[in-house]
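Subject: for your reference before the review

Hello V.,

The reviewers asked for a structural picture of the protein, and I figured it would be easier to keep everything in one thread rather than splitting it across files. Below is the amino acid sequence we used in the manuscript, unchanged from the supplementary table.
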Amino acid sequence: MDKDFDRYTVQFKHGRWAIYGWGVYEAGSVLEGQAMKCWLEAYDTEEEAQAACPNALHSHDWLEPQISLAHLPDENDPVAGGMYPDDY
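And here is what came back from the structure prediction:
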């Protein structure tokens, strides 16, 4: 598995066992500083997934950090310079 991730998780999704790598979004990203979850691979069995990434911990969507988009302008927020087509 890729060495750039802080940790790995395995979870049952869509009928397969998926391995995810976790890190933090870097400076310059609109999600800077927030948790980053990257899908890496999926396997038919839990045993295959654990063999491919023995240090992966079991996880579930409810246990994972949620990404916040609250820092981005909403559709109704005024944006200097006009960001939306109806501002013409």
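For the response letter, the relevant points are probably these. The mean pLDDT is 83. The chain has one helix and four strands.

Happy to draft the paragraph if you're swamped.

O.
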